[in-house]
Amino acid sequence: MNDHPLIDLTELLRLRHGSALSQRELGLLVGVSGNTIARIEAGRPTDLTLAQLASLANSLGTTPRNLLARSPHDEGPEASADADQAKVAAALAESTTFLRADELAYGLSWTLERTRTTLVRLRRLLHGTGLDIRRSPNGYALTADGDALAADERRRLEQARFSRRGLRAHEAALLRAIATGRIDSAWEAHARTNDRIALASLLKADYVQRTGNTYAVSQTVTRAWEADLVALQRLRSRSHERATTPRRRSRVAVPQPNRPIAQ
Prior knowledge:
Layout: H1 9-18, H2 23-30, H3 34-41, H4 50-59, H5 64-67, H6 77-94, H7 101-108, H8 112-126, E1 131-136, E2 139-144, H9 151-165, H10 169-179, H11 185-189, H12 193-204, E3 208-211, E4 214-217, H13 219-244
Antiparallel strand pairs: 1-2, 3-4
């Protein structure tokens, strides 16, 4: 266990008791179990994402920075290093593309050495939080830790997202293109960023499967389409039956001739 846990346990206990919240009640506000809060307060290693840390601080009426534990040496340059890490994390979170170290340095008006040192420290800080600093030839990006979620958990999360909001237009168009065999590795090499993101979402939701350099819709989608087709055929059959069934003719009252008025 780390000698200096991520959370300042004394401050956490003080704020929770001051808010008159039980561990279970605080867990409900944060979106974790009461047992997780108990583990944090006991100083035991606990996976806590930055979003959960922010929610924890907000629920206790403070800021994430005030909840972070400090070592006895967290003064002067070290305190400044914490602020640097917060700035880099915010810069990466706001960017929609990878950022190179020199781009970060330019944007923050830092030296390249300061930027690279902060990136290394931030990556260490994020270890075990569910987030990671991903490095590629294009630069750095703040991403989810690839080992934090199992494959079936990623799949269910993506399916839940699609179930709530449905497919976006470009996602649906991409799914149709894959179903008709118009997507291959050559397409991927020249795909736009939005299409790449859409493809990644479809793959994570198990709506699309990749075999070598080819893509195909999964059995999940095929079964759903077959069910929709059966439902559509039944609807058309009922409509046809209604259209071909002769309607019963309603009786029309025949007007009677006016009778002569008795004299």
